[in-house]
Backbone:
């Protein structure tokens, strides 16, 4: 199963890079890629390693935030966090979210940006995923 997890993570990194590109350029994360990937991971995780299903918890929390305040983050970001959680597990997904927040804070501090309307989160999630 370790080889399968390694292949999943490499595939996830490539997918996150594509999502980062589209999030920055088009401000969207494709449903045509996200939904089949989430469904495939769900089937794989239910069948072989159900402990990774706990990785859906961070995505569920962000979904709750999204339903309460839809302007706070995008639906694509919620899907991406759910996808990350299914692939890497809950603990690593929480660390990735925390690193995303640190990277966004550092970027805003570096650019001296006080107010922003919106920030594409996929590149920061990808950076958090790549951080060792």
Residues:
């Amino acid at each position: 199963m370790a080889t399968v997890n390694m292949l999943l993570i490499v595939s996830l990194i490539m997918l996150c890079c594509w999502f980062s590109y589209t999030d920055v350029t088009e401000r969207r994360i494709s449903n045509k890629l996200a939904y089949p990937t989430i469904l495939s991971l769900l089937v794989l995780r239910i069948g072989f390693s159900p402990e990774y299903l706990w990785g859906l918890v961070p995505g569920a929390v962000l979904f709750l935030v999204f339903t309460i305040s839809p302007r706070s983050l995008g639906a694509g970001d919620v899907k991406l966090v759910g996808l990350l959680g299914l692939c890497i597990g809950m603990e690593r997904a929480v660390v990735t979210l925390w690193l995303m927040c640190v990277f966004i804070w550092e970027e805003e501090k570096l650019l001296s940006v006080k107010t922003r309307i919106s920030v594409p989160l996929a590149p920061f999630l990808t950076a958090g995923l790549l951080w060792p």
Observations:
- Helices lie at 2-25, 31-48, 56-68, 75-88, 90-111, 122-130.
- The mean pLDDT is 92.
